[in-house]
Design goal:
It is built from 11 helices and no strands. It is mainly α and 237 residues long.
Amino acid sequence: MVLLGTLVNGVCIIIGTLLGKILHRIPEDMKGTVMKAIGLAVIVLGLQMGLKSENFLIVIISLALGAAWGEWMNIEDKLNALGNWLETKIGSKNETSISQGFVTATLIFVIGAMAVIGALDSGIRGDHDVLLTKSIIDGFTSLILTTTLGIGVMFSAIPVVLYQGIIALFATQIHQWVPQELMDAYIVEMTSTGGIMIFAIGLNLLGVTKIRVANLLPGIIVVAMVVGIIHAYHLYM
C-alpha cells in the first residue's frame, strides 16, 4: 500500500496529540518553563536546518518573495480566523492559539529530507521504513508540543498526510521527470528555508519576537521555482 507510511505518520501525530492532552493539565509555571525549553530546542533545530544551504542567496530570495506573497494572501490572519472558529467549536479558548500549534507543528513535521525521501521510497519501492521512523519521531514530538501549544498540533496531521501522500502517489512520475541533481538541490534549499522559519517560531515561543511565520510559508514554493529556474538555465549564483 503506497500510502501506508504516510497514514501511519498522520495517526502517530494524532495519538501523540491526544496523549499530550492528557498531560496538558500541568501547573502554569511548569508549562511556561516547558514552553521556553521547547522554544530553545526549536531555535537550535532551525539553526541546524538553516545552515544546510549550499547557496544562501536562494534562501534569501525565497524568504523575501515568499514573505511578500504571504502578506498579500494574508495567510496568518486567515489561519488565526480558522483557529478562532475551531476554538469556538471544540471549546478550547483557554489554550494557546490553535493556529500557532498548527503552524509550528506543520513546519516541524513537513520541512526536511525525511518527509520527501520517505514519501518517494514509499511510492517507488513500497519501502516505508523512513516514514515509519519519522512517524515515531513525530508522535513523540507532537506529544511534547501539545503540552504547551494545545490541540492545534493535531491538525498538522492534515497537511502532513496531504504533502507526503501526493509525493508518494506521484513518486514514479517525480522520479522520471525530476533529475536527481535537481531533487537534491531542492531538498537542501527547502530544508534551509524551512529551517529559518522554524528558527523564527522558536523566537516567537520564547516571546522575543512576534514574526508572522505563516506568511513566510509560500517561501517553500518559491524555493522550488528558484531552484528549478537555476537548474533549467544553468545559472549559478
